């Protein structure tokens, strides 16, 4: 097994400090973007921390999102009723990719794996967003984990 696969994405990224910077850089751009700002009309600064905590768990860091913020179900439910379009999803990806390039270590494979997670996750978020607020999503299972080979 290579050293790279023995290290989690969370550790390779640089942990919570890097994820907070990533989230902050990304949402700064989102809130200034005419296409995406309306999706985040109810945005609060705590959202930045919640996203960093979610990403930490996804990338095999601390499981605080599950323990403190409602886990996978809560994340999915937060997208209900947003009616995200493919154009918005694509723009979201553009802004997040730019934030990844700015904030993550200069490691092509690391950045590619992180962006692949966002592409996968935004497709799920877009699908869930078409459902009305209050929709029963069933049990989505535990918070997914994403590693050097994608979904684990």
TrEMBL record:
Keyword Transport belongs to the record: yes
* Keywords assigned: Heme, Iron, Metal-binding, Transport
Which parts of this chain are annotated as the region Disordered?
Answer: 132-152
Pfam families (UniProt xref): Bac_globin
Family the entry assigns: Belongs to the truncated hemoglobin family. Group II subfamily.
Spell out the PANTHER family in the cross-references: TWO-ON-TWO HEMOGLOBIN-3
Q: What is this protein called?
A: Group II truncated hemoglobin
Species for this entry = Streptomyces milbemycinicus
């Amino acid at each position: 097994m290579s050293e790279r696969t023995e290290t989690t994405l969370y550790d390779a990224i640089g942990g919570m400090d890097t994820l907070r910077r990533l989230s902050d850089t990304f949402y700064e751009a989102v809130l200034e973007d005419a296409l995406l700002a309306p999706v985040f009309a109810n945005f609060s600064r705590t959202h930045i921390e919640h996203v960093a905590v979610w990403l930490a768990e996804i990338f095999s860091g601390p499981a605080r999102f599950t323990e403190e913020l409602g886990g996978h179900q809560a994340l999915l439910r937060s997208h209900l009723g947003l009616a995200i379009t493919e154009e918005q999803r694509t723009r979201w990806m553009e802004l997040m990719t730019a934030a990844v390039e700015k904030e993550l270590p200069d490691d092509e494979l690391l950045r590619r794996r992180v962006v692949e997670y966002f592409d996968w996750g935004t497709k799920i978020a877009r699908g869930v967003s078409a459902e009305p607020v209050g929709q029963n999503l069933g049990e989505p299972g535990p918070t997914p984990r994403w590693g050097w080979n994608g979904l684990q």
